[in-house]
Amino acid sequence: MDTLNSSPITFSGRALQLTSSAIREILKITERPEVISFAGGLPSPEGFPIPELRAAFDRVLATQGATALQYGRTEGYTPLREWVAQDLSRDGMTIDPEEVLIVSGSQQALDMLGKLFIDPGSRVLVEAPSYLGALQSFSLFEPQYQSVPTDAGGLIPEALDAELTQDARFIYVLPNFQNPTGLTLDLQRRQALVERCAALGLPIIEDDPYGELRYAGEPQPSLLELGRPVGATVIRLGTFSKVLAPGMRLGYVVAPRDVISKLVQIKQATDLHTATITQMAVYETVRNGFLRTHLPKVREIYQRQCGYMLDALQRHFPADARWTRPQGGMFIWVTLREGIDTGELLQRAIARNVAFVPGAPFYASAQAPTNRLRLSFVTVPEDRIRTGIQVLGELIGPGH
Amino acid sequence: MDTLNSSPITFSGRALQLTSSAIREILKITERPEVISFAGGLPSPEGFPIPELRAAFDRVLATQGATALQYGRTEGYTPLREWVAQDLSRDGMTIDPEEVLIVSGSQQALDMLGKLFIDPGSRVLVEAPSYLGALQSFSLFEPQYQSVPTDAGGLIPEALDAELTQDARFIYVLPNFQNPTGLTLDLQRRQALVERCAALGLPIIEDDPYGELRYAGEPQPSLLELGRPVGATVIRLGTFSKVLAPGMRLGYVVAPRDVISKLVQIKQATDLHTATITQMAVYETVRNGFLRTHLPKVREIYQRQCGYMLDALQRHFPADARWTRPQGGMFIWVTLREGIDTGELLQRAIARNVAFVPGAPFYASAQAPTNRLRLSFVTVPEDRIRTGIQVLGELIGPGH
C-alpha cells in the first residue's frame, strides 16, 4: 500500500464543526499573479527592515548562540518583556514586566484567551462586524456570540446594558483602524466603554495590531490606559507583525497578574514557549529605539497606499456607495446599495481577476448584511489599485 | 492607581482546573547555579550547530528576506514539508508532502490533536507512565485517561483489548527511548501494537522526539511504517528540537490527508502558521544532508553522558535499586525499593543542591507508584553527575 490509510476516526465535536474558511479559499485563488487582490491582510514588505533584522539575527547567534537555540521560559525572553512593559508605560501608568506574556503572534493570544474564558455556550461579546480570525479562534471553544451594535463611529458603548452583557465572559474590541471596518473609537466612546465595562464587571480584550500605523488624526489613549483608573479589567494584545514583520510570529499580552499566571500555564501546554531566537533577534532590533525612526517610514507607505485607493473609489465607485476613511491601518470597508450581494459580486470579480473579501464572514450572527465588503490597499501598486477598483465599479454598476 | 485591577473574572472550567505544574516549580529551583539538576529535559547545547544556523539565517535574509519575514502558508514552508516527506519515505513507503504539517514544536501538535480528538470525557489511552507535557496538553480538553500497562519492555500490546479501548479516541505512544522511562519498544511489540490498533480501529499518535538520538542497539521501524501495510491510522510527530535546537520551536506532524486537513484548519485558528523565518533557516541548514554528518556527533555526546550516569548509578545507588539502560535519548528511569517516596526524597535532595523529577506526575491515574524517579543526564558535566548521584545514593541509603 502506498497511501496512508484512513480507518474510522472519531473527531471531537468542535473539529466536526470546522469548515474551510471563506477567506482561506479566496486567498488560494488570489495567489495567481494575474489577480489584483484587495483580499489579503498582508503588511507591505516595503516596510520590513530586512538589513536590521539580518544584523540582529547575526549578532544574537554570534554572541549568545547557545541561549538563542535552547528552550526558554514560557513567559518569554525577559529583556523583551521588559522592553514591552517600558514601551507601554505612560504618565500615570506603569506596566510591570510580570504583566507581559510573549506569544507566537496575537492569533495565539486569541486561542489562549478562548481556552482561558470560554466554556461551551459561554456568552462572548464581539463587534458587528469583527476580526474573522478572532471569531475562528474563539469558535473552537464553542461560545455563544452576542454582537454589539456599531455605527459610523464604531462600537456603541451605550448598547452595553445589563441584559446584553449578562453572564458574558468578555467583550472583544479592536479600537484602532478596526479589521474589517477601518474605524477608530474616539476618546468619548473609549471612556464610556471602559466605564460601562468596569461597572458591569465585564473584562475587555483590547486587540490593537494596527495602533502604531496611524497616519491621520490624533493618537488616542488605549483602553488599558483608560481602564485602569476606573477599575476595568483590560487584557491588551499587541504584535510586532505590523511594526516589524509578521513572519517572525511575535506578539504579546498585557494583563493583570492573575490572568497572566493562568495564560502561562495554558501556553506551557500549548507550545511550551515562543521561539527563543526570534524573541532575542526582535529585542536586539528594537532595544535602542529603532522603531522611532522606522515607524514614520512605515506609516508613510500605508498613508500613500490608502490615498491611492480612496482616490480610485471616488473616481470609479457609484455615488450611492459609502466607504470608511481610515486614520491608519490596512482596511477600507465599503457599503454598497441594498440588494447587492457581495458574495455574488466576488464571483464576477474573480472572473475578471480582481478579489476582495465579502462582508458577511466578519459577522458572528447569521443575519449578516450582504452588501458590505473589505478592501486591503497596502500591497497593491498604484496602477493596479486603479485598475482593480475600476473593474469593481463597472461590475457594481452606476448608482441610483 | 498604579497596578492593574483584577475585578471579578469568570474563567472557563478547564482553566479553573489548572494547577502549577510540579516540574515547572522544580525547574525554577534548579535555575540556581549551585544545584546539580538531573530534572531538566534540555538537550545538550554542545550539540547545537551554531555556525551552520547562523550562516543559514544570514543566507535566507540576504537572498529571500521579504519572503522570510512575510506571513506564510498555514501548512508550512513547502520546501521544508517536501524535505520532511522525503526524509521519512522508506522502501515501500512514500510520504507525500501533503501528508506533512509543520508545527511550532511537537508540543503544539499535542495541543492541536487534543482539539481535534477530545471532547470532555472522551477516553484517551496513554502509557503508564507517559510524557508529562502530553498529559498537560490533552488535559485542557478534559479527557478521561485510561492507562495502558507497561513492563520492562515498555507498553504491553496484549493489554489492548476491546474493553480497554472501547470508545477511545486514540492511543498516545512514545516508542523510542520513552520520556520518562528511556524504554524502547522492540519490533515484536511494535508489530503487535499496530495490528491490534488496526483491528480495533484505534488511531495511534506516535511521538518520536528522540528517535534520531540512538546510540546503542538496532534502529526499529516506526509505527507509521509498520502501521500502513496493516491498515492502522498512525499520526506521527517529529521535531527538530533534538537534532538541531529546541529554541527554534519547529516540529511536524505526518498523518492521513483528512487528519492533516482538519489540523490545518485548527492551526489557522491557533497561530495562523509557524514562523516563516525559522522554517526557511532550518530548511537551508538541512537541505544538503547536513544531519548525516551532524547527528553522529550529537549521538556521541549523549552516549558519553549516559555512560557517566550509568557508571555513577552502579557505584553509588543501593543494590535493591533498579534502573533502565536506554539505547538512546535523554532519560534514565529509576525504581527504588517499596516504601521510599521520591517526592519526599526530592525535598531532602534539594536541601543538598541536587534535583530530579519524581515519578508520580508522569502517571495519568491517581494510583501512581511513589518509588520512581526520572534522571536526565545530558547537560551535566561528568564530575557533577558523579557528585550528584553520590548524594542521592547517600540520601536513599543502603539497600536491604
Describe this entry's structure for a reader.
2 copies of one chain form a homodimer. The first copy, chain A, has 400 residues and is of the alpha/beta class. The first copy, chain A, has 2 domains: 13-42 and 292-396, Aspartate Aminotransferase, domain 1; 68-289, 3-Layer(aba) Sandwich (Aspartate Aminotransferase, domain 2). The first copy, chain A, has helices at 13-16, 22-29, 50-68, 78-88, 106-117, 132-139, 162-165, 187-200, 223-230, 257-271, 276-286, 290-316, 342-351, 382-396, and strands spanning 36-37, 100-103, 123-127, 144-148, 150-151, 154-155, 168-173, 204-207, 234-239, 251-254, 322-323, 331-335, 354-355, 357-358, 372-376. In chain A, the strands form 4 sheets. Chain A has a 7-stranded mixed beta sheet, with helices on both faces. In chain A, α5 (106-117) crosses α10 (257-271), α8 (187-200) packs across α9 (223-230) and α12 runs parallel beside α14. The longest helix of chain A is centred in the last third of the chain and has 27 residues, at 290-316. Chain A is globular. The N and C termini of chain A lie far apart (63 Å). Residues 1-6 of chain A have low confidence and may be disordered. The interface between A and B is large, with 97 and 97 residues.
